[in-house]
Amino acid sequence: MNENHTFEQRLAIAKGRRRTKILGLSIILFSINADLITLLSYTEAEISAFLIFKHLFRFLATVFLVIATYKGKNWARIILIICFSLAILLAFFMFFVLLLSDITTLKKVLSVIISTFLIYGLSVYYFIFSLNFKAFFKEQQNNNQ
């Protein structure tokens, strides 16, 4: 951390670092949870190597993007914002489709849909609007140069 920062700036950077770690861990844990719930919803005959590879790739891509964002890579932050925004829109659409057609399936996946709104919604808000994240992110970018 730069010694030229004021106390308030150092405090914002520290808060941003701590909250980014917590949010990153939440994103990764949610990704594991969503992948497991999805894989467990398939019958044994439906599970294939491709399906497992697809979920493993998605999980590893999520971990890679979270780590790159933590390190101050703006392209990773933008990709996460876009992917999470699309996931929120898809969950919103899926909620209403299931609400109108299949209540039984909706009851099974409602926790995943609500978690998607919460985790990804907070992530998008945090990565775009949080002053603490902006201070931490700027510090990470300065340290990487």
Can you give a write-up of this model?
The protein is mostly helical and 145 residues long. The protein has one domain. The protein contains five helices and no strands. The two termini are 13 Å apart. The mean pLDDT is 92. Keywords: Membrane, Transmembrane, Transmembrane helix. The chain crosses the membrane at residues 21-41, 47-68, 75-97, 109-128.
- Poorly predicted ranges (pLDDT <50, ≥5 residues)? none
Output the helix-strand order: HHHHH
Oligomer kind? single chain
Tally of separate domains = 1
Q: What general outline do the C-alpha atoms trace?
A: elongated
Helix content: over 70%
Class by SSE composition:
mainly alpha
Using DSSP, what is the number of strands? Answer: 0
Question: Rg, please?
Answer: 18 Å
Q: Strand content of the residues, in percent?
A: under 5%
Biggest pleated sheet: none
Number of helices: 5
Would you tell me the overall average pLDDT?
A: 92
Give the N-terminus to C-terminus distance in angstroms.
13 Å
Topology:
Blueprint: H1 7-41, H2 49-70, H3 74-101, H4 103-129, H5 131-144
Helix pairs in contact: 1-2, 1-4, 1-5, 2-3, 3-4
Features:
145 residues, transmembrane, membrane, single chain, transmembrane helix
Brief overview:
By secondary structure, the chain is mainly α. The chain has helices at residues 7-41, 49-70, 74-101, 103-129, 131-144.
